[in-house]
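Entry for the shared binder. Reason: the reviewer on the internal report wants the predicted structure included alongside the sequence.
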Amino acid sequence: MKSDPDMIRSFLLGLLEHFSRTDSSPSGKVDDLDGISSQVELSPETMHPPRTGSEGVSNLAADETVSSTFINDMSIEMPPISELGELPAVQDHFQTVLKRRLEIEISQNPPLFPWESQLQEYPAELTALSPLPWMRQLRSLQLPTALPEDILAGLLSRCQELVSESLQPGIQLVKAVEHLFPDQPQAMNQIAGLVLADATVRSTATRDPEALKAAFPEGYEGANPQQQVTLTMLAAKDIFNTLMLTLTPEAPSAQREWLTTAGPVTLSAQLQADAPQQISLVVTVPQAGQLSLPSLGQTQTQTQAGEVTFVLPTPAAGVAYPLEIRLGDAEASPLTFVISWNEG
């Protein structure tokens, strides 16, 4: 039977031999602990014969002293495990293997969204609902310089929200552009008055458009805030003028045209003086679409390019009747005209 000192010494010798092999080749395969245990079994018998009597007692004390001194020395000289370089290497290797495994799993079994029952393809970029079919008209506006398309699209959306409200023209212009220039309240009120005065703004633009274009060498982005307010209000005024049809006894008919990517949309409104009084509407669309008069609950679906007719029976004076036109995709933003009747 082995004595305790012999077992401790044999274990320490085996442990040192194990670490010496590990340190000499850190990237190699670490021996199993079974090798250490087998060395511990064999070492006492081959290196130290068993002791008896007083010699065993004295040797036991000496062995304990040597063992404790050796353990203390080893604990002092032995660097921390984190400095040996083994754990970071193992962690990096483990992370690489785990990442590769996850990539394989995802490629073979892609995860699904909660609303999906099978894998589906999605476009690279998703675009919000916008008046894209109507942008061609906005690009053709007679302005000293072109406005960015996001500004034009925002203007159209805002003008369509306001076109059915009973507002003074100046207030209407201010409300159409105020979200673009929150720090220019006083300038907007002044410029709105100039934009509405055809003699000072619009007639000048008609007489000398090249001179006005020369005033914007860097386009809209290079204009100062007051110039940008003026440009956006000019665009808003054109949009309002095109979307609004007001009939009177002196002007019992009106026509409008709006350019789209598929072709022009035309609207004709005619007041029928015969009793009972009514307004007939004729809309020509360049492709299939859907047209509706929400205030009257009338909707018509057009399966191809052609004419669609509506009738406004006994229209009330001063009331705005919106006409919504959708082309192609029924979920796209509509173009909204407003028809009204004033007795004069």
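Summary line for the report: The first strand starts at residue 244 and ends at 247.
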